[in-house]
Input
Amino acid sequence: MEKRFVWIHEDALGDDHPVRRGAGSVDEVWFVWDEHHLESMGYGAKRLVFIYETLCEMGVSIVKGRTATVLTRYAAQQGYDTIWVPESVNPALQAITEDLRAELRVEVVADTPLVQFERPPNLRRFFSYWKTAGPRLMRP
Amino acid sequence: MDETRLQTDFESREALANYVMAQSPWVTPAAPSPHRGGRRAAEERLAAIKPRRYGRTRNHLDGDVTRLSPYIRHGVVSLREVYERAVELVTNPERCEKFIQELAWRDYWQRVYAAHPEWIWSSIEPYKTGWSEAEYAPTLPEDVRAGETPSACINSFIHTLCDTGYLHNHARMYLASYVVHWRRVSWQAGAKWMMAQLLDGDPASNNLSWQWVASTFSRKPYIFNLENVRRYTGASIDTRTETNRELDGSYADLSSRLFPHRR
Output
């Protein structure tokens, strides 16, 4: 099985996320303890401990530094040309993903959605969204 | 290899927390939350959910809420996984509609965030309170930050939030409403402060909920009164009139007091 290089971030700390599922334990999975990013997100001390203990239980590598710099340098050292990344709606994480894309092939993997839509739902208010989502979720 | 790999094996939770603080010099140190991180803790919560009772009791501070939100927020469990577990327990989803709707709220906020990232820190619509945006204070008052406001129940919510990193959703709404409408502080100042305390806060659910309370993402401001707090909180919260005077009154009285220029 080919060994893959996976970057996980704080929006996707699940062992069952599709970015990891099926890939096996041979993958290298990294989380970057990025002061610049974590501080800019405004996370408090309790949250940082919560994230860290989740990472320790996952058994992933935690590496300190600026995310894109650390990951591209390591990929070059190890000869990885592709990095797998869980999808996020956070523009800060999307920006880091774009920085990686300048140096590496990036495969962005979405989590299993709560509900599938054929067309984007109306997001004006929750209940306009619920008119479309509700029948899909409430089906016995 | 010149990157710094961090330690992942610790003798105790306290040792882990001290190490995290040492690696995070920008943050104000604090004791860890009683809510532990990790998949094992999430699975324990998932095994204990009561989706039918949730519908009947969710607004009560001692109701059957799941406290799964920190794990959902950080992807330790997915919304779909929680949904499937709930449906498995009740067989017919209609028996836990409120529970499913709560999961859908999270999905909704995430979709709004993806479609409109610019809405996270800017008012989506004007306030419907009779006050202009400029009339809201840009910073959080020190007595709110310290949990020393004139209202005892609000102080209790603030202490729970700051001590545990978690607050029941109904108490979050009371607190947000108090900050924005009683103290006339901008929702952005409140959202930023709450986000820094929470384990589960994310820019979408947190900030857009503050906008919903403020009325910049809803048709009217959300307010409450002391009688409502009494109905949904247990004996552990001080809801005496003499220690919560500014919250006491009918909705009509409070509305005219808080929004005298509202048409």
User: Anything to note?
Assistant: The two ends of chain B are 66 Å apart (CA to CA). Strands of chain B lie at 4-5. Chain B touches chain A through 75 residues (CB under 8 Å).
